[in-house]
Amino acid sequence: MAAKAKARTMIVRMISTAQTGYFYSTQRLRQGPKLSAVKYDPRVKQRVLFVESKKTKKG
Fold first, then answer.
1. Could you say which DSSP state residue 41 is in?
2. CA-to-CA distance for 1 and 17, rounded, in angstroms?
3. Strands (E) located in the chain
4. Shortest CA distance to 35 belongs to which of 47, 45, 25, 46?
5. Please, what are the domains in the chain?
6. What would the pLDDT profile of 38-53 be if each residue is shown by its tens digit?
């Protein structure tokens, strides 16, 4: 039996650096660089840096 191929993309969680616990989920290429972006955090009502962490499975 052959091993299952890994997906080309992966789901990642973009976590706010304002430490509010707010996050966005997005997709990126598995081979690509780690993501970081300035996005809006509604808990502090301003734009802050969001950095990538791996999305964890529930359960």
1. E
2. 44
3. 9-16, 23-29, 36-41, 46-54
4. 25
5. 10-54 (2.20.28.120)
6. 999 999 999 999 999 8
Q: Within 13 Å and on the Cβ side, how many CA atoms surround 44?
A: 15
24 token code pair = 């966005």
Question: What are the tokens at 47?
Answer: 């734009």
24: which strand partners? 14
- How far apart CA 3 and CA 33 sit, in angstroms, is 25
Structure tokens that stand for 17 in this block: 């650096």
Q: Rg of the chain over CA atoms, in angstroms? A: 14
DSSP state of 36: E
At 9-18, the pLDDT tens digits run 988 999 999 9
pTM over 0.70: yes
